[in-house]
Design goal:
The protein is 77% helix and 0% strand. The protein has 61 residues and is mostly helical. The chain has one domain. The two termini are 12 Å apart.
């Protein structure tokens, strides 16, 4: 479950950096909106995946 949680954290970090890049005028409005929509879709899919596998113990120690 750790990998999935790290993935979700990385997705939120990407969202933060996307906003910073846009505010710094490194992205135009169209690119920003496109990336933002993709991140939202990925977030939903990742959360659905995490919920589908449930809270399992990690046997790979």
């Amino acid at each position: 479950m750790k990998l999935e949680e790290y993935s979700r954290g990385s997705l939120f970090e990407t969202k933060t950096w996307l906003l910073k890049a846009y505010n710094r005028k490194l992205l135009n409005e169209n690119d920003f909106q496109t990336f933002q929509k993709e991140i939202e879709i990925l977030g939903v899919k990742l959360n659905n995946y995490i919920n589908s596998i449930g809270k399992t113990t990690n046997n790979y120690k």
